[in-house]
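Hey team,

Sharing the Ubiquitin-activating enzyme E1 FCCH domain-containing protein run so nobody has to redo it. Sequence (761 residues) first:
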Amino acid sequence: MNLKTLARSFSGGIIGPELYGRVDLAKLQTGLAEANNFWVLPHGPVQNRPGFQYVNEVKDSTKKVRVVPFSFNTEQTFVLEFGDQYIRWHTNGGTLLETGLTITGISKANPGVLTYTGTDPANGDWMYLSSIVGMAELNGRYAKVKNVNAVANTFELSDTHGGANIDTSGFTAYTSGGTAARVYEIATPYLEADLFDLHFVQSADVLTIVHPTYAPRELRRLGATNWQLSTISFIPTIGTPTAPTVTSSGAGSTTYTYKTTALASDTLEESYASPSTAVTGVALTTSGSYNTITPATVTGAVRYNIYKLASGLWGYIGQTDGSAFKDDNITADVSQTPPEPNDPLSGAGNFPGAVGYHGQRRCFGGTNNKPQNFWATRSATENNLSYSIPTRDDDAIAFRVTAREVNRIRHIVSLDQLLFLTSGGEWKVAPQNSDVLTPTSADPKQFGAEGASNVQPVIAASSVIYVQESGSRLREMKANIYDTSSLDVRDISILAPHLFDDYSVGDLAYAKTPNKMVWCVRSDGTLLGLTYLPEHDVLGWHTHTTDGSFESVACVKEGSEHALYTVAKRHINSRDVRYIERLHSRRFSDPADAFFVDAGLTYSGTATSTITGLWHLEGEEVAVLADAGEHNRVTVTDGAIELDAKASTVHVGLPITADLKTLPLSFEAEAAGQGLTKNVSEVYLRVKDSLGYEVGPNFDELQPTTQRSGEDYGAPPEFVTGVEQITIMPEWGQDAQVCVRQSAPLPVTILSMAFEVTVGA
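Structure output:
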């Protein structure tokens, strides 16, 4: 019996083998058995991913690093390279550099010696060399500083890829010009072993960093190459006044005592109270008598509060702009008292491991000494943990989560409600009998018991995506569609359990554009992608591998898309290296701009047959796309390759193999096709802008698709849009699966598949 069947969407992504019998599942009609280096689009098609563009090698490839996003706004974003006791910055596919030293000479020697003018560099600094006339072989190359001679203003050049001397003896003689710009970095206390347990939250130009064994710190951007890492002081930003000057209007034996506080000019944050001043004089109950209180001036203060001691409590009696204040027997309001100093987050054992923002407060939780405790600053402040007696609504908030088990608060997340993810459950903190979270209205309640790992969650749309405590499942938490005050938690890895069983997830990132995708680094170095559009019930998994392994991910907006940055560990030229790489955009109007190589670089300029600057791929066989045409693979030697013909746009990098495999064939009728032998003889692929892929019944018997139609001789083949008919090798079996492979540096987008199937008895 001959039949024809159609696969019209692939948005279901990878479906686990244990679900192949669930023909009742709608997802099984849109799923795939394999999608490696392919991703599914939310509206149905599937396409091979673009390549990762090489950005730079990490400072020390023998140690792990972590990439962290920093977004001031949609136009100003960075990816921070957190390494062993340092941070570097990357943006728009490049590394942040300081203003360059002026080069005045470079010797032809081994090693080459560079002469400069400007501030002396330090041994070990990385320098980016550019605009050199004559010895142009060094342009666009990073070099490590060695043997600085501050008297002669010289240093030797060594390779950043391994540290060998850069031999310039065979280079063109230096003529003039050039700059050597230092890679910008700052020192940190964070050791390699602790990098993936750091937790972050950002507000404008400030990134808060916490870890239970380090004092909480702020990373502040003060300028393009001026960043400051400092320990947080949990005190008001406005200074404390010294004792006020107090005088009495007349002699007497009655004593009155006063304190003052300062109010900050920009936020009206209140300082700690000054030392007290007592005055003995006429009783204020006497007609016409008064005390004059003059507060001490504080820089940045706009007004001052005056407090008077009454029955053992300090009570508010008024405010002044700094001029003398007259107390003519004002009754002290003891319901408004000065702030009480409080710093529960200082000292070993008291450093928080969780951080977030909620309700105009910066929040902390999960110290070693108090793993279930939570603290939030005073309203509209960043560092002020003070409180008042009696309690006021804008006081700092502090409480302990009471539960059957002592499970650390690992993450603090703010959606419509304040959420805690502990190692043993999920909690929400809603205000009780109030619309605002205050010290007296906070009411923590547990609504889930799955728990979260220490991997920092991501907020995707209106959901929180986090790794379950076991480390091997991904969960989604979001408001209930019918009751937004309640929250639902579900396992979003349930349809592809084989991607998670026996593995753990070590890092997460989320890209909003051009397609919403969650990215996960698996413990074996595989990158997992989830096409995520929950409002349309689109949850489609795909896997991504490379020549090496992925170790960390971060997403930031660059231009009109969110760029995915990774740390890729590779074995290049007999050494293990770690590279910062950036997923290239897949949008292109010119076929020559199609970028489908990993650790890749692009040459664009005057047509040439020599492509240089490939030191990071030394000794590797690389894939090449030259002016939209696939070139034979070549090996990088001395940082360069030779093409068979000149080209003006050339992409060079490690080859990518993208594999796609359909699910076992079943028909849209209960049990139809189950248990019967089948053979797919013809495949009809509706494709868009595709070329160079192969199709077959398995990955060992693939048939190439047509490469050329009516193009001029010497011109690259044109990309195909339309229906391609492919006759594949016959293979009788019960599954009748079809495989697609793209191993060329070319795009393939599959919109649908139709199969001609022969069904046996």
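The radius of gyration is 33 Å.

Ping me if you want the raw files.
A.
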